[in-house]
Amino acid sequence: MTAEFAASDADAKPLWLVRDELPGALDGAARGWAEACGFDGSAGQLCLLSDGSGGLAGALFGMGKPDGKAGRERFFLAKAAVALPEGAWRIETWPDGVDRSEAALAWLLAQYAFGRYRKADGAKARLVPPEGVDAPRLIAMAEAEFLTRDLINTPASDMGPDALEEAARALAGRHGFAVEVIAGDDLLDRNFPMIHAVGRASAQAPRLIELRRGESGPALTLVGKGVCFDTGGLDIKPAAGMKLMKKDMGGAATVLGLAQMLVATGAAEGMRLRVLIPAVENAISGAAFRPGDILTSRKGLTVEVNNTDAEGRLVLADAMAYGAEAEPDWLVTMATLTGAARVALGPDLPPFYCDDDAAAAAIQAAGLAQCDPVWRMPFWAPYEAMIEPGIADLDNAPAGGMAGSVTAALFLRRFAAGAAHYAHFDIYGWQPSAAPGRTQGGVQQGARALLAALPELLAR
After folding, report:
1. The pLDDT value given to residue 320
2. Best CA proximity match to 354, nearest among 346, 342, 366, 344
3. pLDDT score at 52
4. What are phi and psi of 44, to 5 degrees?
5. What mean pLDDT, rounded, does the chain reach?
6. Taking the domains of the chain in order of start, what are their residue ranges?
7. Residue 12 has what pLDDT?
8. Is the dihedral of CA 377, 354, 397, 391 positive or negative?
9. Which pLDDT tens digit goes with each residue over 381-434?
10. pLDDT at 73
11. pLDDT tier at 53 (50, 70, 90 boundaries)?
12. What sequence ranges are listed for the domain Cytosol aminopeptidase (predicted)?
């Protein structure tokens, strides 16, 4: 779906953002009406204003105290976009502390609705782009987010490995990527044994999807976990654990959204951009891989499978090793990888891992500036022993259950050798309940942070 601002401000109605005092521009009748309605600028309060002849003259929207609810919630102004009547609106007043770009992006994000299976509408009010904002860039961000949300929200019945490949090919066609897909037993012939092992039990063949764009400049390789549904394999999840497993391809959805964003904003120009997606379903059949199996990865490292439900790191490892062989400047993984990350930081704040202190600081700062927060966690070297089982080089699911996100990141880092820099994002990819600008369901995390930080990262 598309995101849009108002085409013109010619017929736009004024919207006053109010903290405590009514704007001085209000005439006496409007001021009296607002006071009669009990409007006091409380956070989220809306007051529509009449033109005196049955028409709409404008509206007041409460922002509350700077340290109150509006200050705590990202994209707070999306509440106004949803509440206002259809039509064009322009913001007349900007209280201290209200960021214009965030407000405009919030308004765009409020337009999202997932309507594949029933009619659904997002906000119908359209905002005149505030002075000083980069409207095309914000539209590109919002539309990339919509792509990611649509992919995650689509159930596995319509978003298996076949459909994920189709989505990647569609994006490639729109934005000038070359595409290569290696599927089924060809994965074995081309030395992707762990992708094959995880996906071979499914009715849809496992595959590695590769997109490439650009012939010169710094190289950025994005690897996204594409587990289209995760039963847990033979270590089967309980029913409650499978309920959200259509989102286990959230890493793939996020790197596709980010790739679109990079092209649409012009950031992909002058770089070699590569996207790798191991697309599988972790299913159960006589061909399923088993607990206790030892797999030999593309890199040659052997991996003891101590839990078939820790499959994401296996498919990522083969794709990462392949990506690292080209020695990119940056290798970035995005994956809905561990429940431990959610226990540590909750659904809103995905952890990321990066050995480069300055780069990590740039990513974290960019995330805060773009309302796309991420939090750095450590590649804690003393825990390396936890992923070394003795019978093989690596253990995909260390016993004990401690430091699960850290040990998963350490596991992945073993396959990043060759890349000049590596960062891993352990995202959730899901909004458990509706929030301003974010409907319940799939959500993009970390992509805007990376977009904003990339100029500094690629200069390193």
Report:
1. 99
2. 366
3. 83
4. 85, -5
5. 96
6. 13-132, 141-458
7. 97
8. negative
9. 999 999 999 899 999 999 988 999 999 999 999 999 999 999 999 999 999 999
10. 87
11. confident
12. 307-314
In this predicted structure, what is the pLDDT of residue 112? Answer: 98
Structure tokens belonging to residue 155 = 């159930």
For the segment(s) 13-132, the CATH number from 2.40.30.170, 3.30.379.10, 3.40.220.10, 1.10.3720.10 is 3.40.220.10
Please report the pLDDT score of residue 460 as a whole number: 78
Q: Is domain 141-458 classified as CATH 3.40.630.10?
A: yes
Chain length of the chain: 460
What is the model's pLDDT at position 20? 83
Q: Which has the closest alpha carbon to 148: 119, 109, 105?
A: 109
Catalytic residues: 237, 313
C-alpha closest to that of 335 among 259, 251, 255:
251
pLDDT, tens digit (0-9, with 9 covering 90-100), for 291-342: 999 999 999 999 999 999 999 999 999 999 999 999 999 999 999 999 999 9
Q: Which two tokens stand for residue 188?
A: 């074995």
The rounded distance, in Å, linking the Cα atoms of 121 and 139 is 18
Residue 232: partners with Cβ closer than 8 Å, 6 or more residues away: 241, 242, 282, 308, 309
Measured between its terminal Cα atoms, the distance across the chain in Å is: 36
